[in-house]
């Protein structure tokens, strides 16, 4: 497999991603048609719009990445594609396209689990051995898992309500951040991070620590969202901020909210580390936590994981920002990892296009 070339296709949510890597994990090309700017306008991912944009872009994304890599589809040795979890209509575009390609060009097809790909792609950039801990924080998911092998994951904790990215997107919209031109075309999470940086009074607002007394590794962000709503309403009334007007304390509110999210995530991650230590699930000479998913792009949140990790003797890693959010690279990489151990490599083309979680 040294020379093999893998094509990865990702369409599980709102990004049409396609990437090509070689057998040593070198990135040959990467193309991404992001729909973030479109969905930001609507205030959330619209599945029908996502489906239509994937349909429009899938062929371009694949052609693009082949061209950028300077190869043809005949040079590809295997095609990896996300088949779960995600939006059904979105998943189907990528999976159908991949199956079509693999059938007419007789290439093996490798179905990929989106969350596993988020976790494993860190190994493309850092020398990380199994088993390791992973924290996945994105717009659709929130979980802590022990990664024992390429195809062996143990779930330690998960979100009980809204995902952190989803909550960032909702509160950003509610605070009207996108009325500021600088923030109009970026994700809500990124907007909150940038606004928080401009805060001059981080202690103006105080948030509770969710699930503070639970000893498990689960997450809950809906309480923080509700708490922000109450503080915002109060300030809006105070300043009579109606219509498009933002409250003057918006940067301070963003900073306090981001701090609360970071503290909660760090607290749950610490619990997962304690659980792993207690049960000898992690080797003392390989205490590693990988942080991935769109919210891992947040430097403040990543730093608080580094801080907790430090306390527990863990080193924190994350993929480059563009690979933390949804992309084709992680799918191609997961395909390569599976090809190396000959796991889930389909040559009969009979695999179900979209599989249950
Ligand atoms: O992984 P991803 O691209 O898609 C999902 O699988 O959900 O994550 C997108 C999410 C969005 O909700 C976005 O607000 C959030 O990641 N995000 C951030 C940042 N950049 C993206 N959240 C906090 N801080 C950021 N810098
Ligand atoms: Zn994702």
From TrEMBL:
Cofactor requirements of the protein: a divalent metal cation
Keywords of the record: Acyltransferase, Metal-binding, Mitochondrion, Transferase, tRNA processing
Gene Ontology MF annotations: metal ion binding; tRNA N(6)-L-threonylcarbamoyladenine synthase activity
Documented EC number(s): 2.3.1.234
Catalytic activity entry: L-threonylcarbamoyladenylate + adenosine(37) in tRNA = N(6)-L-threonylcarbamoyladenosine(37) in tRNA + AMP + H(+)
Pfam families: TsaD
EC top class, as a word: transferase
Entry's Gene Ontology BP terms: tRNA threonylcarbamoyladenosine modification
Keyword field contains Nucleus: no
Record note on cofactor: Binds 1 divalent metal cation per subunit.
Compartments where found: Mitochondrion
Predominant localisation class: mitochondrion
Domain Gcp-like: 27-333
InterPro entries in UniProt: ATPase_NBD, Gcp-like_dom, KAE1/TsaD, TsaD
GO terms for cellular component: mitochondrion
Summary of subunit composition and partner proteins: Homodimer.
Function of the protein: Required for the formation of a threonylcarbamoyl group on adenosine at position 37 (t(6)A37) in mitochondrial tRNAs that read codons beginning with adenine. Probably involved in the transfer of the threonylcarbamoyl moiety of threonylcarbamoyl-AMP (TC-AMP) to the N6 group of A37. Involved in mitochondrial genome maintenance.
Family matches, as HAMAP family: TsaD
Protein family per UniProt: Belongs to the KAE1 / TsaD family.
Protein name: N(6)-L-threonylcarbamoyladenine synthase
Organism (species): Helicoverpa armigera
Upper classification of the organism: Eukaryota, Metazoa, Ecdysozoa, Arthropoda, Hexapoda
């Amino acid at each position: 497999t040294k020379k093999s070339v893998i094509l990865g296709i990702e369409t599980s949510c709102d990004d049409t991603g396609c990437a090509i890597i070689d057998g040593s994990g070198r990135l040959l090309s990467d193309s991404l048609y992001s729909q973030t700017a479109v969905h930001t306008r609507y205030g959330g991912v619209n599945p029908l719009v996502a489906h239509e944009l994937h349909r429009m872009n899938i062929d371009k994304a694949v052609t693009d990445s082949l061209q950028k890599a300077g190869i043809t589809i005949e040079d590809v040795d295997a095609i990896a594609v996300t088949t779960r979890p995600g939006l059904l209509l979105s998943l189907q575009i990528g999976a159908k396209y991949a199956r079509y390609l693999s059938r007419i060009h007789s290439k093996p097809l490798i179905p990929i689990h989106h969350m596993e790909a988020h976790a494993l792609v860190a190994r493309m950039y850092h020398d990380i051995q199994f088993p390791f801990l992973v924290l996945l924080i994105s717009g659709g998911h929130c979980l802590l898992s022990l990664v024992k092998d390429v195809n062996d994951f143990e779930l330690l904790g998960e979100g009980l309500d809204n995902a952190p990215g989803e909550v960032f997107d909702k509160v950003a919209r509610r605070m009207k951040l996108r009325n500021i031109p600088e923030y109009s075309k970026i994700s809500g999470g990124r907007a909150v991070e940038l606004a928080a940086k401009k805060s001059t009074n981080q202690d103006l607002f105080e948030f509770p620590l969710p699930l503070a007394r639970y000893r498990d590794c689960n997450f809950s962000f809906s309480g923080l969202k509700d708490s922000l709503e109450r503080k915002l309403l109060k300030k809006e009334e105070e300043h009579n901020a109606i219509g498009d007007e933002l409250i003057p304390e918006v940067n301070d509110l963003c900073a306090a909210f981001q701090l609360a999210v970071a503290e909660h995530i760090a607290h749950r991650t610490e619990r997962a580390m304690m659980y792993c230590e207690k049960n000898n699930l992690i080797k003392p000479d390989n205490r590693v936590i990988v942080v991935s998913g769109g919210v891992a792009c947040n430097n403040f949140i990543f730093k608080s994981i580094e801080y907790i990790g430090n306390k527990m003797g863990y080193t924190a890693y994350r993929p480059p920002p563009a690979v933390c959010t949804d992309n084709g690279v992680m799918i191609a990489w997961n395909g390569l990892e599976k090809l190396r151990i000959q796991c889930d490599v389909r040559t009969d083309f009979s695999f179900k296009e979209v599989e249950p979680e």
